[in-house]
Amino acid sequence: MTFSLAARDAASGMFGTAVTSSSPCVAARCAHVRPGVGAASSQNITDPSLGPRLLDLVASGTSAVDAVAEVVADVPFSDYRQLTVVDWKGRAAAWSGPHTLGRHGSAIGSACVAAGNLLATADVPGAMVAAYEAADGAHLVERLVRALEAGLAAGGEEGPVRSAGLLVVDRASWPIADLRVDWHDDPVGELRRLWELWAPQMDAYLTRAINPAAAPSYGVPGE
């Protein structure tokens, strides 16, 4: 009931992941990123602790492939989990346990990995990777949104998706983009609308955090 893409943008060094699902509030459970370290998704019958665990291993120098293998071997109920991770070198890995729901699969591209379950077609992960790679040069958030849009266009889930979200980190310790649609009839379309709202303001809010004296005005009454 979920499909996602995690990536490292080679040009900027940013990490991000985007996800959509038929269940509510999917990004709160499934999306995980860490500046300078990596991006991960933990989905299917979700254990939200596994994303941070993958990133801890990557931060210690473990490759994406070895991090997934270690988590799968070490945690209980890994047969029910679907995991992806991209590390700081752009290496990517995925795991779909034998109890992953419905039609499922994954696809690995250049510093990116997509995976999904309960899919309408097996083409969804590959379509997401292709769309992400085709948008090379665009902002990472834009590339992630295009990947979700491509996943939907390739068939998406067996049923309608209801929530979507993305997380992107740059050099700051907090996400530069944390956009979530927790319940909507068109969550990916609404995520696109939120990105178009946030995009022209994102750098200004980063400046306000780092150097308020150089920040642009807020443009609000009473300022």
Terminal CA distance reads 46 Å
Mean pLDDT: 96
Structural class: alpha+beta
Helical percentage: 25-40%
Query: What's the Cα radius of gyration?
Result: 17 Å
- Biggest beta sheet summary: 6 strands, antiparallel
CATH fold annotation: Glutamine Phosphoribosylpyrophosphate, subunit 1, domain 1
CATH superfamily (homologous) name: Aminohydrolase, N-terminal nucleophile (Ntn) domain
Under CATH at level 1, the class stands as Alpha Beta
Word description of this protein:
The chain has one domain: 4-Layer Sandwich (Glutamine Phosphoribosylpyrophosphate, subunit 1, domain 1), CATH 3.60.20. 32% of the residues lie in helices and 27% in strands. The strands form 2 sheets. It has a 6-stranded antiparallel beta sheet with strand order 7-8-1-2-9-10. Strands 3-4-5-6 form a 4-stranded antiparallel beta sheet. α4 packs antiparallel against α5. It starts with a strand and ends in a 13-residue tail after the last helix.
Q: What's the SSE blueprint?
A:
Layout: E1 2-8, E2 15-21, H1 26-30, E3 31-34, E4 38-44, H2 50-59, H3 64-74, E5 81-87, E6 92-96, E7 105-109, E8 112-117, H4 124-134, H5 140-153, E9 163-169, E10 177-181, H6 187-198, H7 202-210
Antiparallel strand pairs: 1-2, 1-8, 2-9, 3-4, 4-5, 5-6, 7-8, 9-10
Short description:
Helix content is 32%, strand content 27%.
How would you describe this structure in keywords?
Glutamine Phosphoribosylpyrophosphate, subunit 1, domain 1; single chain; 223 residues
